[in-house]
């Protein structure tokens, strides 16, 4: 096994493990050093992260009933509403054992899940979103978060999971909508009814969180189809079907991640599904390595500055979170 740090310009690990950034340290201990969740240092870092920024500010702004900003479906406002707060808490490594996180998950499941399965992005008042508003990017982000927070066995999560898998393959799927997911294979009205690369990344990252031994045939079929789609072009070009030019956002590595995906997140999805060593990723890995600085760090080119409850990092500055993401991928490539 090759040490992934040998391909970097310098070793960023001590920087990522600094105790003053407990959330990053918590994730780095697990995903770069393979420490188990029950490891004393992991537990200490997790506990401190839940009391520290940026997690502390997100939780401090939660309503006692479990939602953020206003009751309802939770998609708006971006990026402080209920939906986004849960998604970002997951990306920050918050623990689902915290009763506030649990209350937020319950609120999402009760107010954002549609009657046909899947999570919708629009609704009026106290009504649940329409099934016609379910799209892969939102459903994938929320499904990934809920599984990570320990809600895989909840019936409503299972309904979302079933929607996610069968909407991709089209097998035994009852209905697509012109105003949402328009057809199998990640087709989406937001992308001109073409298969959406961003949606595919989010959907696959959700399915990747399901333990291998618990993946139903429908889930595995969706994973296989999704992997084939992500590798159908050179990910470094992000030349997935689009109704306009390829978005520049693909090439701006950032954190946190909303409905937009970047090239690095394609690599994360494929790594989580066991495809990090696919030779078709070589150009992409070379591109990723070219983006590091002399200290073996990556910059945050999409930091959602002034859009969150609290700024997590500075736009354009060396980023612990983006560096953590890049190192995770490189570790899998060289494992």
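Sequence proposed for the structure above (335 residues):
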């Amino acid at each position: 096994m090759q040490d992934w740090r040998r391909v970097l310009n310098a070793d960023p690990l001590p920087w990522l493990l600094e105790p003053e950034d407990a959330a990053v340290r918590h994730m780095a201990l697990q995903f770069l050093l393979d420490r188990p969740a029950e490891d004393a240092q992991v537990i200490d870092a997790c506990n401190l992260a839940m009391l520290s920024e940026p997690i502390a500010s997100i939780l401090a702004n939660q309503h006692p009933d479990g939602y953020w900003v206003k009751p309802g479906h939770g998609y708006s406002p971006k990026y402080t509403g209920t939906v986004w707060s849960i998604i970002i808490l997951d990306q920050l490594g918050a623990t689902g054992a915290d009763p506030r996180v649990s209350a937020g998950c319950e609120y999402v499941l009760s107010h954002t899940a549609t009657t046909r399965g899947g999570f919708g992005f629009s609704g009026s008042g106290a009504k649940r979103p329409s099934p016609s508003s379910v799209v892969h990017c939102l459903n994938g982000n929320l499904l990934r978060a809920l599984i990570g927070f320990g809600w895989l066995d909840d019936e409503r999560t299972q309904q979302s999971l079933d929607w996610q898998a069968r909407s991709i393959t089209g097998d035994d799927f009852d209905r697509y909508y012109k105003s949402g997911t328009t057809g199998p294979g990640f087709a989406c009205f937001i992308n001109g009814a073409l298969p959406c690369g961003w949606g595919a990344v989010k959907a696959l990252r959700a399915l990747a969180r399901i333990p291998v031994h618990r993946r139903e045939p429908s889930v595995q079929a969706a994973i296989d189809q999704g992997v084939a789609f992500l590798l159908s072009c050179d990910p470094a070009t992000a030349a997935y079907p689009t109704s306009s030019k390829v978005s520049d956002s693909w090439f701006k590595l950032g954190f946190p991640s909303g409905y937009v995906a970047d090239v690095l997140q394609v690599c994360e999805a494929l790594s989580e599904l066991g495809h990090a060593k696919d030779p078709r990723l070589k150009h992409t890995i070379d591109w990723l390595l070219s983006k590091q600085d002399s200290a073996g760090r990556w910059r945050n080119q999409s930091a959602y500055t002034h859009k969150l409850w609290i700024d997590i990092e500075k736009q354009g500055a060396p980023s612990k979170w983006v560096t953590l993401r890049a190192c995770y991928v490189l570790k899998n490539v060289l494992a």
